[in-house]
Design a protein that fits this description.
Pfam families: CheW, H-kinase_dim, HATPase_c, Hpt. With about 700 residues, the chain is α+β, with helices and mostly antiparallel strands. It folds into 5 domains: about 5-130, Up-down Bundle (Four Helix Bundle (Hemerythrin (Met), subunit A)), CATH 1.20.120; about 145-280, Histidine kinase CheA-like, P2 response regulator-binding domain (Alpha-Beta Plaits); about 315-375; about 375-555, Histidine kinase-like ATPase, C-terminal domain (Heat Shock Protein 90, 2-Layer Sandwich), CATH 3.30.565; about 560-700, CheA-289, Domain 4 (OB fold (Dihydrolipoamide Acetyltransferase, E2P), Beta Barrel), CATH 2.40.50.180. The strands form 5 sheets. Strands 14-18-19-17-16-15 form a 6-stranded mixed sheet. Strand 12 (about 560-570) and strand 13 (about 575-580) form a beta hairpin. The chain is flat and about 105 Å long.
């Protein structure tokens, strides 16, 4: 079995496990929701079939037991009770552990498997037997056995759906006894014309079962719509055959019986034929465990339309993006040369060259957007991970909490999602532990017993915003302020806004918790959260109101690779200001420049006063432009804060590739990275959120004339 086959199986199984987790949580809220029951049944059925096809019997067995429980719920003979939910989550955890750890044979989880069986046994469900017992043929027609004739005609491209028709025959044995299986070979082409990706056989099957037609149809639940599957009840005719002394066995022999043992032998012969084809170089035997996509979301239950998808290795995407980055650098170089070259040419030639360049620029941007979109994935899968965590933590803390997810369809760079997952997890855990009150406390405050935590994602000004909102107790700003004083994080003279006090929670070692818990409150973690978000060029803001709740707002770039920026000059150096932070450019007049207490400089801009910063001071760059009126002021904005920054000259808008500078130089406050310009020189990219913090801490440095 190839590594590619195993990797595909693992990926598909993890996708179905995500469906199970979401479905089990939704069924706890709405146990009668038939769509979710069908969804989790399909996902479990697919895991069972895929594991069986790959030969991973332990996974297949666990999924089979859980599927039996879900099948009883589908049939209405059982309900999705708390006990069933507990068993389902135990089974889910076990399957996920085996897949995540690569323990596909279950060698390290025997104890957990036995415990799961005990749980299901406590629900009075037999798990050590087949759901449908196979009984011996008998001459007594009074037994409640039905006889069915099945015509199975599959589409040639059925393999592309991840379905193995032979596995469907095996599954029929779980609902009854196979009496006869006739293969129709009329459509099988000559050996040299065989297409290894096409299925050419069809079957006629005679089945004895105590199940109904609907129960038998469930075996073909994934292929009924696309294939010709006919199931006829021939019980009345079969009973006519039983009249007289002729027994079932004699009847079947007379009609050319094909027993289960014969089928096993036939399957073995099919394998031998496959080996012959492989040796002849006609067929390369493949097992593709690509499983059904119908279970990937609840929406797929309601619609049979599925988008065509293809798996692309991340490394390949990164290579494309790297080449595209070099293309952008080369484009910038060509633009520089063209601009210089056409200055000495005729106007018509200049116009033609520039028009051609603009067309190339347009095409490059389109290609760039398309390629970057391939690395974008919805954040919903990450959000869904927290549903189970919140459920379990709420039970542990004896709280009642609903997790509401909004904006699950919002796309974000896969790398950003991977790096933001752990910080989000910590913030959600913190909201459960410290934010939401116990039910009794909430009722005493006039709140509903059940608290709410919201996870929101949406696009804003070329960035993505993620919000964690709870309707809990809020942040005690006085307690935070006092704790910060005790830890010497601030001085008594500091005048802090509510937002600045709330952000003290993200200082290293800061905690107001009186009790250390297993969930949070250890005085570590939030500072790491802040560091991780800053590494993503993100910004965190915290808004809170006592007894009303807390909102944590995280603003992140859509991608870590390429940004649109404005190139500016300070002295002899060039810098890139990210475009999404820029509001406007102004040329300040003398009357607009004011001093506060003779120290801090502000700019009077229309009906407001904007703090001023000379970038040459913060960045330590030599320049003759030192007064706000000497150069150009860029009005930048970060959330609700504005600032005017002084530069010598605006050079123009550029799309630049971000290069990390951590390996080559020490981390500098206010610098997010670097880029290579068209002339081969390097320009530093400004970290605007950090500049706001630096200018606040160093007000004495930003007044001109010092």
């Amino acid at each position: 079995m190839s590594d590619d086959m195993i990797e595909t199986f693992l990926e598909e199984t993890m996708e179905n496990l995500e469906v199970l987790e979401e479905g089990f949580i939704e069924l706890e809220k709405s146990p009668e929701d038939k769509e979710w029951v069908d969804s989790v049944f399909r996902a479990m059925h697919t895991i069972k079939g895929g594991a069986g096809l790959m030969g991973f019997e332990a996974i297949s067995e666990i999924a089979h037991h859980l599927e039996n429980v879900l099948d009883q719920i589908r049939e209405g003979s059982s309900s999705y009770s708390d006990e069933v939910a507990n068993a389902m989550f135990r089974g889910y955890d076990l399957l996920k552990q085996m897949v995540s750890d690569g323990d596909l044979e279950g060698s390290t989880v025997q104890g957990k498997m036995n415990y799961l069986k005990e749980l299901i046994s406590d629900l009075s469900i037999e798990i050590n037997k087949e759901t449908i017992s196979t009984t011996n043929c008998t001459d007594n027609p009074s037994e409640k056995n039905n006889f069915y004739k099945l015509e199975l005609n599959f589409q040639p491209d059925i393999f592309e759906t991840g379905t193995d028709p032979l596995m469907l025959i095996y599954e029929l044995e779980e609902v009854g006894e196979l009496l006869q299986v006739f293969s129709k070979t009329e459509t099988v082409p000559e050996l040299r014309e065989l297409d290894p990706h096409q299925f050419h056989l069809s079957w006629t099957v005679f089945l004895k079962s105590t199940e109904s037609v609907e129960a038998i149809k469930n075996v073909f639940i994934f292929v009924l719509d696309e294939n010709d599957i006919q199931i006829d009840d021939i019980t009345s005719k079969a009973h006519e055959w039983f009249k007289g002394d002729r027994g079932t066995k004699e009847l079947l022999i007379t009609n050319g019986t094909l027993t289960s043992q014969y089928i096993e032998g036939a399957f073995e012969k099919l394998k031998n034929v496959g080996m012959m084809l492989e040796e002849a170089g006609i067929l390369q035997l493949q097992k593709d465990s690509s499983l059904q996509k119908e279970t990937s979301s609840k929406a797929n239950i309601k619609s049979s339309n599925s988008s065509n998808t293809i798996r692309v290795e991340t490394e390949k995407l990164e290579n494309i993006l790297n080449h595209l980055a070099e293309l952008l650098i080369a484009q910038s170089r060509v633009k520089s040369l063209v601009t210089t070259g056409v200055q000495n040419g005729k106007k018509e030639q200049q116009r033609e060259v520039l028009n051609a360049f603009e067309e190339v620029d347009k095409i490059i941007r389109i290609v760039q957007e398309e390629v970057m979109n391939t690395s974008m994935i919805p954040i919903g899968a990450t959000f869904m991970r927290f549903q189970r965590m919140v459920r379990d933590l709420a039970l542990e803390k004896e709280k009642e909490i609903e997790l509401v997810l909004n904006g699950k369809e919002t796309d974000l760079d896969k790398k950003v999602i991977e790096q933001i997952t752990d910080p989000l997890k910590h913030l959600v855990r913190n909201a459960v532990d410290h934010g939401i009150e116990l039910p009794e406390e909430r009722v005493a405050k006039g709140k509903p017993r059940e608290g709410t935590i919201e996870l929101n994602a949406f696009h804003q000004e070329g960035s993505i915003v993620i919000e964690i909102i709870d309707d809990g107790k809020g942040i005690d700003e006085e307690a935070v302020y006092e704790k910060a004083l005790q830890k010497n994080l601030i001085s008594p003279e500091d005048q802090l806004t509510s937002e600045e006090i709330n952000l003290l929670l993200f200082k290293p070692g800061f905690s107001t918790a009186n009790t250390v818990t297993d969930i949070s409150g250890r005085g570590v973690g939030l500072d790491v959260v802040m560091t991780n978000i800053k590494n993503l060029r993100g910004v965190v803001n915290v808004y809170s109101e006592k007894d009303k709740g807390t909102t944590i707002n995280i603003k992140l770039p859509l991608t870590l690779a390429i940004i649109d920026g404005m190139m500016v000059r300070i002295g002899d150096e060039r810098f890139i200001v990210p475009l999404n932070f820029i509001l406007e450019f102004i040329k300040a007049e003398e009357q607009q420049v004011l001093k506060v207490e003779g120290k801090e400089t502000i700019i009077h801009l229309r009906n407001e006063y904007v703090p001023y910063t000379g970038l040459h001071k913060i960045l330590n760059v030599e320049t003759d432009i030192k007064k706000p009126t000497d150069g150009i002021l860029i009005i930048i904005k970060n959330n609700e804060r504005k600032m005017a920054v002084l530069v010598d000259e605006i050079l123009g808008q550029e799309q630049v590739v971000i290069k990390s500078i951590k390996e080559n130089m020490e981390q500098t406050e206010g610098i997010a990275g670097a880029t290579i310009l068209g002339d081969g020189n390097v320009a530093l990219i400004l970290d605007i959120p950090t500049l706001f913090n630096v200018s606040t801490k160093n007000n004495e440095k930003v007044a001109y004339g010092k």
